[in-house]
Amino acid sequence: MSAAEQQSKALAFLRISIGLIFLIFAEYKLTSTGFIRTGMAQYITQFLNEGSYPFIRPFLRKIILPHSIFFGVIVSISELLIALSLITGVLVRWASVGGLTMMLVLLFSSNYPGPQAPFWEFFGASLEHSILALCFIALLIAPSNHRWALLRFKQ
């Protein structure tokens, strides 16, 4: 097996794995009304109280929190669409843009270590979102639908 084939399989594995993770996230949110009705507002309140970056707090407080049910639906459906796209290999780059945007919003909403934190803590505090953000960047850079995709990449 050539190096290109191995890389293609590895990227497809990464794509599908992230898709399955997002499917689990979406399933939790869409099969229970708890997240949409109250969970989103609880998360945003927790973010505001415990660690959002100062520049995003007005956005969370004035736009997201008052409309938390609407944004809860948007987040839930977005996670489902990202999952389906990554699993099937269809519109992967668009899904990666959406996933990267979601990860960056979550990173800045919940991973602020504080103004006095050493530089390395900003990265340590953000691992739960920055790792997935890096994966979405990889899926944006290289075509991951050469293997194991519903619509095969045409050369």
Class per helix and strand makeup: mainly alpha
> Which regions have little confidence, pLDDT < 50, spanning 5+ residues?
none
Oligomer: single chain
Tally of helical segments: 7
Strand content: under 5%
Describe the main β-sheet briefly: none
Query: How many domains comprise the coordinates?
Result: 1
Mean pLDDT: 92
Span between termini: 19 Å
Report the radius of gyration as a whole number of Å: 17 Å
In N-to-C order, the SSE pattern is HHHHHHH
Report the strand count: 0
Helix content: over 70%
Principal-axis shape: globular
Notes on the structure:
With 155 residues, this protein is mostly helical. It has one domain. The protein contains seven helices and no strands. Helix 1 (3-31) crosses helix 7 (127-141) and helix 4 crosses helix 5 (92-110). The radius of gyration is 17 Å and the shape is globular. It starts with a helix and ends in a 14-residue tail after the last helix. The mean pLDDT is 92.
Key structural traits:
7 helices, single chain, mainly alpha, globular, 0% strand
